[in-house]
Every structure is written in C-alpha cells, then in structure tokens.
What we know:
With about 375 residues, the protein is mainly α. It is built from 17 helices and 4 strands. It is globular and about 55 Å long.
Amino acid sequence: MNGRVLQPVSAGVVGTLTGFFGSVAVLLAGLTAAGATAAQAASGLAALCVVNGLLSIGVSLRLRIPACFAWSTPGAALLVAAHPGSLGTAVGGFLLSAALMVVTGLVPTLARSIDRIPAALSGGLLAGVLLPFCLAPVREAVVTPWIVLPLVVGWFVLSRLVPRAAGPAVIVAAIVLTVVQGSAGAVLPPLPVVTPPSVDVVGIVALGLPLYLVTMAGQQLPGLAVLRANAYRPPTRLLLVASGLGSAVAAPLGGVQLNLAAITGAIMIGPDAGEDRGRRWIAGVASGGTYLVLAAIAGVVAGLIGDRPPALVEAAAGLALIGAFIGAITAAIERPDTRVAAAVTFLVVGSGIAVAGIGSAFWGLVAGGVALAVLTARR
C-alpha cells in the first residue's frame, strides 16, 4: 500500500477510533439514563456502528469526498437531562429527530434557516447538557482520589502532548481499571434488540426537538464547516437526508441521532488524510470499515461498562468532554446582547429539573427562548 493510500486510510482509522473511545461512555450513559438494559445498550451501539460504517463508505464512494459520519455525542448526553421516562419514549424522540433532519434536508428554506439558530440557545443548551458529565471528575476525585486524580494528571499530560488522544486514552484507561477492580459487567453479544416507540407524545416531543437542535447546531453544522474549510463543496441537503434516514434505521435498535463527524472529522478530512485532496475520500471509506469492525465488539464494550457506567468511567467521560463544554460556553456568550438568555438556558438545562414529566433540556429551551424574546424585542 503506497503512501497516497496509506495516509488517508490511517487517518480514517485513527479518527474513528478516537471518536469511538472518546464518546462511547457518554453514549452508554445516555442510553442507560433512558432506561436501556446492557443488552439494549449493546444493540444501540452495534446498530450505530453498522449504520455509520455503511453511510461513511457509501456516501464517500458516491461523492468522492471524505464523508465521515458519527453518532451525536451531545445528543447522547442530552438523554441524561431529558428524563425520557422509558427507552420506548427515547426511541420515539430519536425517530422524531430523524424525521426533522430529513425534512430539513428536503426543504431548502429550512436548511438555510438552521444557520440562524441563536447561538445563545444552542450553545447554552449544549453546555447545560454537558455540565453533569464535566462535574463527574470533581465529584469522584473526592470519593476515590487515589484512582481519579492519577487519571486527571494523565489527562493533563496528554492534553499538553497529544491533545487529540487525551480523551480516548483516559476512557480506555478507566475501562481497564474498572475491569481490573472487578466492577465491570459481563460481556454481551451485539445482538439486535428492537424497542418499539411509545405513545407518549409529550415525552417524544420534549426529547426529539432538543435532540434535533443540539445535534444540528453542535454536530451537523460544524461537520459541514469542516468540509467547507478544506475546500470541499458538500451537498448539504443530501447529507442531511442521509443522516436522518440512517438515524431512522438505527433508532428502533436503540441508536441515537447520527450526524457528520465534526471534531474527529478534522482528522479524516484535513491534511492528516494526505496532501492530495482528491484522494481523501479514502479516509471516509476507511472510517466506515473501522466502524463495521467496531460493531463486532460493541457487546464487549457495552457489557464491560454494564447497566450503569461505573463512576470511574463517568469521570473519564467528563474529562473527555471538557473541550466540547468550553466550545459551547464560548459560543453561547459570544454576543453581549444575548448573554442573559444564554445563561438562563444553561442554568435551567444544567439544573436537571423535571416538570410534568418533562426534562430540563426542553424547559431550558423554553426559558431561554422567552428571555431572548423579551430582552431583544426592541432590537
């Protein structure tokens, strides 16, 4: 294999492994919070890997651009704040979000309007969703300092030397330590488990709408921006429809929203994938192939983490999400005239409240939207 092929292949493999191990604990924590058993979580993880793999391979080959897909990490974190009540309600929310993604891709006006989502709301929502995870290292450092603090130190060192590897490395280390301590669950086969959507319309809307917004603003738009920054002209509507249809396929199996890879997409789309831009599509195919291999070990990963992600794994996930939290806060408060609305959204979402069975993510959007309307009405 010559260098013109080896470099994009290695970029696709490294980027996918980084994204997988950097966010798998968040995904499993979100599914568990939604009521999934370890077997259902394994099913969701495997389904996401398969659909991501097939989408990345198919779209990259068809368009000859590095189209790399991933699951929505903010969307998975949202499940903790949304309190869907049951996995069936969560599946309904996944399907609603997928439908909204498809409609956005089919209707040009909607696709353009997404760019005008106020950053105060999208950033505040994302930051509030990530807050409980980012607080986990602080809490666990008090409970088990002799285990968590070395993990924190390792994260700091890796953040200085190899920033991209810091998050995945601490999560892998946390999983290994959990296994060594004997607190891991049993290995499971990645068998499909179908969960029908519930008929809880209120719960489905309360989850599906914030999931759509946080995925679109936090993942899809940055993923498209990465492609454009590397001089590609991505067919926005086609990619949105593909993401939505793929999400609809994975949803009944426990899979959260799919989207274009954003943070790890920079590895697979940029110069790391080779100087020849015309051959970087190979990185997308390599990413898809890597996901298909990872689908085979989904049961191992989900089983080891168990029905409830161990505290050490949650702490490691919080460390891995600090960068995303900083980005969300920065975007939310960038404009002085909307900072109050951003703060209201962030505080309500981060509070974790549930009113009338509806979680804080929905109420944060409502409160932030009201604040934004009142405070900027004259402008």
